[in-house]
Specification:
single chain; TIM Barrel; 41% helix; globular; 2,5-didehydrogluconate reductase DkgB; methylglyoxal reductase (NADPH) (acetol producing) activity
Length: 268
């Protein structure tokens, strides 16, 4: 089984001083898992903020993602070494391939093998995938074995619950990491979410995050505001009732926010 923290700090779309402040504030608020990616263009700043925090590397869980341009066997490991340099560490805790990118000319077998090789070289403790559908996850399992796929990081929110994919991953023992859990903030104004928040004396963000945690997913929300960073963490102690969970389950509307052409799979 993978060893995945339930709660992490996302850094998507945050750059320069903004990401340095967000990571610093997050670490001060108690976050110990940080999620970045090569394409975010912020690994060096994340590394800088971590170094300045004085928190021991062993107390942190760092995730990065290989960008599709670096999938070929001769590029994947050098690109990861470059990421490690920027992050100022000898190894990350988790490395994912960012998108399946079926059209980019590198076979799944080639990039999954290269990712497994990165693990055997000690550059990353665990490996996994992101934005994979059922069929592609099966293909990845065939290459590296399901015990070597720590997680599939997928877009998941009350508006996009991907039940078929989630059921498959859980049946295979592959951990689910939810990104965009707040659907770019869209769920924060949802009347159902807001009424649960009112009843529980919580924020709508806490309700959506608590929903995902209760289903066994890891979450990696991002924020630039210190008070939201701290408030989001409290989702971990929010106990939703079965009735709350049922009300949120009914919000499913296939509300996908992210599906870049040429990179995304055929969604289940």
């Amino acid at each position: 089984m993978s060893n995945m923290p339930a709660f992490g700090l996302g850094t998507f779309r945050l750059q320069g001083q903004v990401v340095i402040d967000s990571v610093r504030n997050g670490l001060e608020a108690g976050y110990r898992a940080i999620d970045t990616a090569q394409i975010y263009g912020n690994e060096a700043e994340v590394g800088e903020a971590i170094a300045a925090s004085g928190i021991a590397r062993k107390d942190l869980f760092l995730t990065t993602k290989i960008w599709v341009d670096n999938y070929s066997r001769n590029k994947l490991i050098p690109s990861l070494k470059d990421s490690l340099k920027k992050l100022r560490t000898d190894e990350v805790d988790l490395t994912l391939v960012h998108w399946p990118a079926p059209d980019n000319g590198v076979s799944l077998e080639e990039f999954m093998s290269a990712l497994a090789e990165a693990k055997s070289q000690g550059l990353t403790k665990q490996i996994g995938v992101s934005n994979f559908n059922i069929e592609l996850t099966k293909q990845a399992i065939a290459v590296v074995g399901k015990e070597n796929i720590a997680t599939n990081q997928i877009e998941l929110s009350p508006y996009l619950q991907s039940r078929k994919l989630v059921a498959f991953l859980q049946q295979e023992g592959i951990h689910v990491t939810s990104y965009m859990t707040l659907a770019y903030g869209k769920v924060l104004g949802d009347p159902v979410i807001c009424s649960i928040a009112e009843r529980r004396q919580a924020t709508p963000a806490q309700v959506a995050l608590a929903w995902a945690l209760r289903l066994g997913y890891s979450v990696i929300p991002s924020s630039t505001k210190r008070e939201n960073l701290a408030s989001n963490l409290l989702a971990q102690t929010l106990q939703l009732t079965d009735e709350d969970m049922a009300d949120i389950a009914a919000l499913e509307r296939n509300g996908r926010e992210v599906s870049p052409e040429g990179l995304a799979p055929q969604w289940d």
